[in-house]
Amino acid sequence: EDQVTQSPEALRLQEGESSSLNCSYTVSGLRGLFWYRQDPGKGPEFLFTLYSAGEEKEKERLKATLTKKESFLHITAPKPEDSATYLCAVVGFGNEKLTFGTGTRLTIIP
Amino acid sequence: SAVISQKPSRDICQRGTSLTIQCQVDSQVTMMFWYRQQPGQSLTLIATANQGSEATYESGFVIDKFPISRPNLTFSTLTVSNMSPEDSSIYLCSVEEYTGGGQYFGPGTRLTVT
Description:
Mean pLDDT of chain B: 93
Helix content of chain B: under 10%
CATH superfamily of chain B: Immunoglobulins
Largest sheet of chain B: 7 strands, mixed
Strand content of chain B: over 45%
Number of domains of chain B: 1
Number of strands of chain B: 11
Largest interface: A-B, 22 and 23 residues
Radius of gyration of chain A: 13 Å
Structural class of chain A: mainly beta
Number of helices of chain B: 0
Shape of chain B: globular
Radius of gyration of chain B: 13 Å
CATH class of chain B: Mainly Beta
Number of domains of chain A: 1
Order of helices and strands of chain B: EEEEEEEEEEE
CATH topology of chain A: Immunoglobulin-like
CATH class of chain A: Mainly Beta
Order of helices and strands of chain A: EEEEEEEEEEE
Low-confidence stretches of chain A: none
Shape of chain A: globular
Number of strands of chain A: 11
Structural class of chain B: mainly beta
Low-confidence stretches of chain B: none
Number of helices of chain A: 0
CATH topology of chain B: Immunoglobulin-like
Distance between the termini of chain A: 41 Å
CATH architecture of chain A: Sandwich
Oligomer: heterodimer
CATH architecture of chain B: Sandwich
C-alpha cells in the first residue's frame, strides 16, 4: 500500500526566511510525485510533477526535489502570499489513484 | 491543463436531504475522480468514474450513499444522499493529467449539513 508522510504539520516563517517542507513516500514503482498548493476553501492547485530521483523543478520561489525515498519543497525568501497548505501525493505504476499526505500548513508572517 | 468547474460552490442543507454536485471539464477526459476533504483533513478518494461504466467506489463509500453519474466525457455528478452532519465536507472532482498520472482539481463544493 502506498504511503505518504509530510512534515512538519505546520510551519510559521518570517517573510524572507527560507525553509523546506518534507514528503516521505513508500510506493511500489513510482510513476510520479506531485506537489499541490491549497488555499482555504479551495481545490488543490497543481504545482509540480517529479518522475525520477535527482529531478528538480522550479517555479518562482519554490523548488521541488526528489530522491528515492523523499521529496523536498524548498521555499526561498517567502512572501505572505505563499501562505497555504502544501500537499504531496504519489501514484505508482499500474495504479491511477493518487495517495495524498496530510499536508504542511505554511504561514508567512509579514 | 484542464479547466474544471463545480456547481454549487457551497450549500447548507438539512439533515436527511440529498444534494447533487455537478462537475464540468473543458475537454474530454476518460477518468474523473470524486474526493471528500473533511475539515482539517487531507483528501480521501470516494470513487473513480469512467464514462460508460459503473463508478468504482473506495472502501467505506457505497453507491446508495454517493451515487455517481458519468453521462459523457466532460461531465459527472455526485449525489450525497440522506445527509447527516458528518457529511459536512468539501467535495472535489478531479481529472487525470494526460501524461504523468497527476490530477487537476476543481474548485470544490463546500457542504454544510445542519
